[in-house]
């Protein structure tokens, strides 16, 4: 019983949450949710709520307020908070905990669970509908702001009334959650008071408008959003827009190991907004070039590092053909053979084929210099590059933003294949084992008890 109620509230809040997500996209207006509950009156005959479109004030009045509050024999109570947004439930109703008691919305949650209830996730201007209801209401209309004021009112169980409760404003206060919680306590106290006086009622809880400043900051990202990883301690990285190609890169680390040099050189390179300025693109290929420079920890000489992505466009996909590393500086002087000039990097099992509209993303791209196929780089064995927080989309950028990203970690990583493969072997063993057990049969040749017995001729003994 308790669990089912819990589930119902969870699902209703999940619904509100879904709707709020849809709402951000669908409508820029501040729409607010409305919750109804009634101890006596079932609400199943009301129209289905469509989560996508906000309900207009007229429809709210005609389809919900009139049947619920006006034409029933019961009285009506309207709780009006100055601002209410679906996000307030996500923020303050403790929805992410399984044993949630409703957080700041404890009493309202209780009423919704225990009584007949209905949630309208998005209503436009409910205040207008309430004003209309007020002007056309058949019974007495009261307005109150506190429990004391309600107690003083001469409310009779037999007499139909409309009670409008103006809750304390929850915006421009120090602690919004505290303000909501005290309003919720007032809602609980008033409903219990009405219950004690045996007054039958239907209640509505809503806001005059959506919470300020909540819907405004939605959908304003430009560029990267899919990737919005927790910001690393060293800032958020740099977004680059080079002739319509979009790049994002946080930082780069280069580890240069050379034969004959004792200490490896470690370069922590920072990315600037002009790092990719030398990148070029045409209809078929894009050469994405990051130019970075930095000095090692205790060194003095500056190193220039260039990382070049050679990408080509192939019909419905684009491919990173190869990635080349160039290091200019002291690193090349010590090596007797070869130097790090356009040296190919090993991309291992990274998935470098990307659907044409997609961007490419890698949170940590670690690539060693390819000394296996390029023997001239043997002196640099163990040299590697790490690109942190890379996202790039050289082709088909639309709507001034990265499209969905394909991640460098393929769907089937090596570990997954290992798991699948060994499970298949075990399953095969099990299969043959079961088949062998099924093949066992009882012997079908027994002595026939009714047939002739076997007679064994015996030689006569003398
Ligand atoms: C960047 O992070 C490193 C450790 O990862 C830290 O030592 C360094 O102070 C940070 N730099 C800035 C500018 O925050
Ligand atoms: C990127 O640059 C192009 C022109 O090269 C411009 O049309 C587009 O608005 C820019 N996008 C962003 C997010 O700055
Ligand atoms: C790119 O394609 C457009 C039309 O699709 C064409 O007009 C233009 O010449 C092409 N540019 C190059 C460099 O191929
Ligand atoms: C470079 O970054 C690594 C890892 O973030 C850190 O351990 C190292 O101290 C950094 N070196 C410098 C010179 O900042
Ligand atoms: C850099 O520092 C390390 C130890 O901190 C030292 O072993 C190495 O010799 C130094 N390198 C240079 C070029 O000073
Ligand atoms: C880019 O890759 C293609 C295909 O592998 C190759 O033909 C072309 O030479 C490469 N360009 C550079 C500058 O490496
Ligand atoms: C340099 O290359 C030559 C021939 O290619 C080779 O004999 C020699 O051992 C190499 N030197 C080093 C230090 O690897």
UniProtKB/TrEMBL annotation:
Matches recorded under Gene3D superfamilies: 2.40.160.110
Pfam family, one: Ac45-VOA1_TM
Residues making up the signal peptide according to the UniProt record: 1-28
One GO MF term attached to the UniProt entry: ATPase activator activity
Domain of life of the native organism: Eukaryota
Alphabetic keyword roster: Membrane, Signal, Transmembrane, Transmembrane helix
Entry annotated with the keyword Calcium: no
Any one GO cellular component localisation term in the record: proton-transporting V-type ATPase complex
Membrane-spanning parts: 416-440
Compartments reported by the entry: Membrane
Recorded topology in the membrane: Single-pass membrane protein
One GO term of the biological process aspect: regulation of cellular pH
Domain V-type proton ATPase subunit S1/VOA1 transmembrane: 410-448
Family label: Belongs to the vacuolar ATPase subunit S1 family.
Name used for this protein in its record: V-type proton ATPase subunit S1
Organism: Elysia marginata
